[in-house]
Amino acid sequence: MIRHIVFFSVPKGGDPDAVEAGLSMLTENPHATVLEIGRNTRTDLYDEGVDFVVYGEFEDEAALSAYREHPIYKKSTSVVKPLREMRMAADYDVDKALRHSRYKG
């Protein structure tokens, strides 16, 4: 499984509701097994640079590629890109990730 995490910021004086509306289109993309759009709750004491997070899970790299090629993704990008300031993305293979779990159940 591939996890896809993207952070966005909205410029000062920008329209976060319009960015959220543009990002929300992504939830209709059929290639993600999980797709969440969230506004930053701003609980980090040191950084307030992120306004939105997109979190997605994909069966494999092919599903992530299909997600990026889908017309919904392209439409969302065309809406959000001119409204956002920063975009940072990371993808990783869950099976290759280092992990520690405190859950003993």
From TrEMBL:
Pfam entry (one): Dabb
InterPro entries registered for this protein in UniProt: Dabb, Dimeric_a/b-barrel
Record domain Stress-response A/B barrel: where: 2-92
Name this protein carries in UniProt: Stress responsive protein
Lineage: Bacteria, Pseudomonadati, Pseudomonadota, Alphaproteobacteria, Hyphomicrobiales
